[in-house]
Amino acid sequence: MSSANGSDELQAAVTAHWSARAPLFDGVASHVAQRDLWRRVLEAAFQADRPRDVVDLGCGTGACAVIAAELGHRVRAFDASPEMIAAARRAAEAAGVEIGFEVAQLRDIAAEEAVADIVTLRNVLWTLERPMEALRLAHRLLRPGGLVVVSDGLWSVAPRYRSTYPADVADRLPLHDGLTEEMARRMLADAGFTAFRSWQHLFAASPYPGEVPVFVLGATRA
Fold first, then answer.
1. End-to-end Cα spacing for the chain
2. What's residue 1's pLDDT?
3. pTM for the whole structure
4. Domains in the chain, ordered, with CATH?
């Protein structure tokens, strides 16, 4: 089996995992249980004094996308799972905001350049076979001086609370155990970002059960 076919098979397994979780995902999600906190943190991280063009990569059920739209931004959001996108559309409708949702794998998103002021990736990097490709996509989508906001955590700290994949899938995901802010900074620098700024201090404690070390990191496209 070629590596390309192998990647297709892996992506199908990852997408199926999240599609199966979509109907009940928001019932235990941090962005629902601590919605006001996430809104405050993301509003600060966006550093926006007027409406901006936001692209949310791997939007899931709309955690970042809905908040960004509520803050007055123009939002496009992508996810590979049709079921996650359906849940996100329902969340947007309930919030009374308009968002352009699309079902797409990150690698299939049109290679548009300089169309966004802000790109968000929340809890996405740990799910990817090639996480650097997602950061390079974010760099390409951003206008010069644009901002990427990445949030993720060291999920292996609290294994009983985390979502995990079958072993044959997990073994092929380099960040399956999660990542630290220091790791994210190195990856973002390699993707061409500078001027890092952290925002997780706005949480009084970890927003995830098990006291998972989490980060919310902004960086600028030079």
1. 40
2. 24
3. 0.91
4. 3-221 (3.40.50.150)
- Rg for the chain, CA atoms, rounded: 16
Give the span between the Cα atoms of 222 and 218, in whole angstroms: 13
Q: 3-state secondary structure string, the chain? A: CCHHHHHHHHHHHHHHHHHHHHHHHCCCCHHHHCHHHHHHHHHHHHCCCCCCEEEEECCCCCHHHHHHHHCCCEEEEEECCHHHHHHHHHHHHHHCCCCEEEECCHHHCCCCCCCEEEEEEECCHHHCCCHHHHHHHHHHHEEEEEEEEEEEECHHHCHHHCCCCCHHHHCCCCCCCCCCHHHHHHHHHHCCEEEEEECHHHCCCCCCCCCCCEEEEEEEEC
Spatial distance between the Cα atoms of 89 and 68, rounded to a whole number of angstroms: 14
Cα distance between residue 142 and residue 118, in whole Å: 7
Neighbours of 86 (CB within 10 A): 17
What the block records as the tokens of 57 is 């990569």
Q: Mean pLDDT of all residues in the chain?
A: 90
| CA 222 and chain centroid, separation | 21
Contact between residue 184 and residue 204 where contact means Cβ atoms under 8 Å apart: no
Per-residue model confidence (pLDDT) at position 29? 59
Measure the CA–CA gap between 39 and 187, rounded to whole angstroms. Answer: 25
Closest to 199 (Cα-Cα) out of 74, 75, 40: 40
Name the residue with tokens 């076979």.
129
